[in-house]
Amino acid sequence: MLSPLEFRIISQLQKAKGGISAEQLASELQISKDTLYSTAENLSVLGYVELKKSSSKEAQITDEGKSYANAGLPETQLLRKISRKSMKVQELSDPVSRIGLQWGKSNGLLTIDGGMLNITAKGKEALSGGIAEEKVLTELGSSPQISGQFESKHKRELENLLKRKLITIKERSSLEISLTATGSEAASKGHLPSSQINSLNRSIIASKGWKGKEFEKYNVNLEVAKEIPAKAHPLRRMINQIKGSYVSMGFKEISGPIVIPAFWNFDTLFTPQDHPARETQDTFYLSNPQLLEITNKGVVAKVKAAHEEAWHSEWVENIAKQGVLRTQMTSVSIQELYNIAKYKEYKLPLKLFSTGRVFRNENIDYKHLTDFYQSDGIIIGENLTMANLFDTLTKIYGAIGIKIKFKPAYFPFVEPGAEVYGYHEQRKEWLEIAGCGILRREITGIARKSVTVLAWGSSVERLLLIKDPEIERLSDLYNNGVGWLRSKRLV
Amino acid sequence: MVNVLFNKKYLFSLLGFKLDDKKLESYIAKMGFEMESASATEIGIELPANRPDIVDIVGFARALRNFLHKGKKTKYEIKNSKPLLQIDVSKEVSQLRPFIAALAVEEMKFSEESLKHLLNFTEKFTSNYGRQRKKLAIGLHDLDKIIPPLEYGAIKDQEFAALGTSKKMKFSEILKKHEKGISYAHTISHPSLYPVVKDSDGVISLVPIINSARTKVTAATRNLLIEITGISKYDVERSADLFAAMFIDLGATIKKVKINYSGSSVILPKMESQKIEIPLLKIEGQIGVIIGFNNVISLANKMGYLAALVGRNIRFWIPTYRLDVLNEQDIIEDIAIAYGYDYIQPVPLFSEQIGELGESTKNSMKVSEIMVGMGFSEMMNSFLTSDDINFKKMRQEVDKEGSIRVKAAKVQQLTMLRTSLLPSLLRNLGMSVHEKMPQKIFELDYAFGLDKQVNERRCVAALFADPKANFNQAKAIVEGMLQSMGIEYKIRETLHNSFIEGRSANIILDGKVAGVFGEIHPEVLSNFGIEEPTVAFEISL
Questions:
Q1: What is the pLDDT of residue A1?
Q2: Residue B116 pLDDT greater than 80, yes or no
Q3: CB A338 within 8 A of CB B341
Q4: How far apart are CA B62 and CA B75, in angstroms?
Q5: What is the structure's pLDDT at A193?
Q6: Contact A255 B48 (CB under 8 A)
Q7: Do B365 and B457 sit in the same domain of this protein?
Q8: What is the DSSP letter of B134?
Q9: Which domain holds residue B377?
Q10: Residue burial A353-384, b: 16+ Cβ < 10 Å; e: rest
Q11: Engineering a disulfide at A351: which of A64, A76, A251, A393 sits with its beta carbon 3.0 to 4.6 angstroms away?
């Protein structure tokens, strides 16, 4: 049994008597070409229709090409000029003559001898008989279709014209559909009894006209053009998942500025002012504005004292005021830690997290980006331990399905410190996803002497690499190919 | 991080025993480091930047011996406290590079391998820990070639026979022509004075660039002078401790050197081991496991500390070669590493706190839900952009004053933070013109401006590209969104260079312009390679 659409196609073909182009048929039936193609494929498998695919080439003459079509190629124009009056190279001032000189020389049509232009024997031949490319160009001007015969005969000329950007060639493919004998028979027999309902409509429903009738059946295996759903970006979905994981663990979300004085990105995190991480090699510094005010004045003197005691060199406030694009979300955590007074109605331990964009001065390639996302957490409390930290992180990453392990590591602002590795099930390897530790007391002490602060930060893109095996390169995420996003599976 | 390559044969001779690659890798991991490569002759290890003592192979062998409890009980001390030499520091140098430390080494027996490692380490130490020699620089000299008295001073440009050259060159010439001169010329701050170490026969070191050919150290050298110069007294003196420990391990004898500043003097290396006492409860309390006194002492020994019980506290002697230990937290970390992170059992933390998303996240989730509901797919773009994309392609005047600009980006085109989301989206559309139309895309993120203060605006913007896209559709989308957000708004016609005149309007919230929508100007579309009519909106949230 044919589907209604299949039947309509066959009926239409029978009316047309003979072959008809797919484009025309689709517009007559008011259906999309994609739908027609897939249905017609199916009908041809069933033997009802015959499909003739053909492709043709058509040349288009560019603006430059058009300007030569009548006047001749620059080298011919130049040959004519010289044949009329002998000339020196310096006399050639107009651009067409210069182009003519270049091609004339390289094709051996003319030579330069002591500054004088001489026409070669080949050049003379071209003057009388014309240049092959020129003839092809004129021919294409009157009939742009390129037949197979024409193409093989003028292969070299076509290549040259293409290279000189005087023409472009477009390929067109077409599909012609015609009925086979079986198809004609099926159409004339009329496989659709009139007692069947084709499409359901308001009047049939209202009048209950469907009673006692059958519905036409659809071929459920027929290919259809899929709907394209709108989606949130895969990275956004990962960000929302990690936020959900924090909230489920009782964390409160905080946020902070992106453009900050180096103070919050480095100095408060106990990074010495001559530390390599602070160089423009890694960090984006601002040229406008160059310096930013440090709003929380109260902590400046304390940070200065802590640095000078530990690093034995002078701490300079103007270095700390340099404007940067934050390189780590810990800058947000530390600003909140130094503003702890606002949480006075909260009981310790206080659990906070932030997620946001951070920046590194990198060359962009498949695994380096200038922008990426970090998710950072802190727990402020009394007598907190590494064992508490490990438990918290195991649960947070466990909630999004990532198994983790810890390795000792050095970061200037935590001690003890660890790197967190997440297991990539498909690749069967451990990838570094986060850094964590207990904040140094030189940092914590400035906020409140008695507290211990557990702190960690992870790259959200790394989590996504582990969670979504379809994503192989970080750069895919920021290329935003519409096709890539449309076909992306949700994880 | 510092990556080192150690020769296995030399490492084993320093250890006094051999280990196969598998054992090496496992011990190194237990010490808290990572063995990255192993060949028949060498191993590569990634080491933390704050541990110069183990970036040196001699120190690394010492750490590994201690960790396996196979340490010789070496006492890092100098028996003869009488200085062998003196260095006078002149006033002029105090403005340039004020501090020097030194030690004399006697009865050293080099092999080609040990000399090569020493020179490699010195190079690594001064470039990493010494911040490209700005903070610390080291000169190694053959002590037998030196004729006292020694002076650390600053002198005018003069000729000098430097290491690695066949003829004498002026200091100024060395800075321009000698390989080391070119690399470290940036450390010379004064236009006409150069810091030097000299003996009675002339300059032995142009600090911190290059030593003299005369005092060159070779495998045959038996006695050495090591001078360390820098900008921090603490750092040069502690570096002398580190080198003294290394030469003690190599079987040499260390002799002290007296440094005479104007008005004060100091005898180096000091080799003073600092003591810190920590209550056991505090150690166990930070790590979160029960360890016990004896175990803590044994773990401390593994990490190179001498430790002893003093009442309820444990007293630790910080090894003189450790430059990274600032306070008890650093010692607790070493105990935790020796204990093994893998053996720390996670312990849940009790808390009554209720989790909550921030206001801006809640608001963004609403907007995003509405946009996806209207059939728009989300894009996420870099915040960094160029004048060309942000302004010129949008038919806007370049506004250098009102935009936040970055210095020295490695990707040269990136000079500023975007002031609008629309250029990012138009770029996305321009790169996806071959995809099926209609295309509906949006972005919800930050745009930036500068107006006395930095402003970071959370915005939503969208594009709708379709053969029949027109102003009314843009308006329908904007109003559909604002109404679902429950936002009161007014619409007012506007002129905006990126949009077609007479087909663009402002969105007014609380009497202020908060956004714009309309039909994108065809010139803008062409600038981004778009051939489809496109409407757009952008609103600050």
A1: 62
A2: yes
A3: no
A4: 12
A5: 47
A6: no
A7: yes
A8: T
A9: 359-540
A10: bbbbbbbbbbebeeeebbbbbbbbbbbbbeeb
A11: A251
Residue B447 counted as domain residue: yes
Question: What would the two tokens of residue B512 be?
Answer: 């202020």
Domains and CATH numbers, chain A: 1-73+131-225 (3.30.1370.240), 235-258+326-487 (3.30.930.10)
pTM, to two decimals: 0.79
Name which of B361, B381, B441 is nearest A482 (Cβ-Cβ).
Answer: B441
Do B289 and B182 lie in a common domain? no
Which chain B residue is nearest to residue A417, measuring alpha carbons?
B333
pLDDT, tens digit (0-9, with 9 covering 90-100), for B347-383 = 999 999 999 999 999 999 999 999 999 999 999 999 9
Are B160 and B229 found together in one domain?
yes
Report which of A133, A355, A320 is spatially closest to residue A237, judged by C-alpha positions.
A355
Please identify every stretch of chain A with a pLDDT value under 70, giving residue numbers as ranges: 1, 189-195
Q: Which two tokens stand for residue B142?
A: 């053959």
Tens of pLDDT, residue by residue over B263-315, are 899 999 999 999 999 999 999 999 999 999 999 999 999 999 999 999 989 99
For residue range B511-529, list pLDDT tens digits in order.
999 999 999 999 999 999 9
* Co-location of B100 and B236 in the same domain: yes
| B76 domain residue, yes or no | no
Looking at beta carbons, which residues of chain B come within 8 Å of A284?
384, 406-407, 409
In a domain, B348, yes or no: no
Identify all chain B residues contacting A342, using CB atoms and an 8 Å cutoff: none
Residues from chain B that touch A386, judged by Cβ atoms under 8 A, are 286-288, 336, 341, 344
Please report the DSSP string for A420-484 in residue order: EEEEETTTTEEEEEEEEEEEPHHHHHHH-TT-EEEEEEEEHHHHHHHH-TT---HHHHHH--HHH
User: Do residue B349 and residue A347 have CB atoms under 8 angstroms apart?
Assistant: no
Write the CATH number for B46.
3.30.56.10
Q: Looking at B72-149, which runs of residues are DSSP E strands?
A: 85-89, 99-106, 136-142
- Does residue B242 fall inside a structural domain? yes
Q: How far is B66 from chain A (nearest CA, A)?
A: 18
Report the residue of chain A nearest B367, measured CA to CA: A232
Residues B176 and B252 in one domain: yes
Tell whether A226 is within 8 A of chain B (Cβ): no
pLDDT of residue A210: 87
- Give the count of beta carbons closer than 10 Å to the beta carbon of residue A200: 11
- B237 and B283 in a single domain? The answer is no
Asked if A480 and B408 come within 8 Å (Cβ–Cβ), the reply is no
Mean pLDDT of all residues in chain B?
Answer: 94
Q: Residues B186, B228: one domain?
A: yes
Contacts of A380 in chain B (CB under 8 A): none
Q: Are residues B411 and B337 in the same domain?
A: no
| Chain A contact set for B347 (CB, 8 A) | 385, 387-388, 391
Residue of B nearest to A275 (CA): B131
Closest B-chain CA to A395:
B348
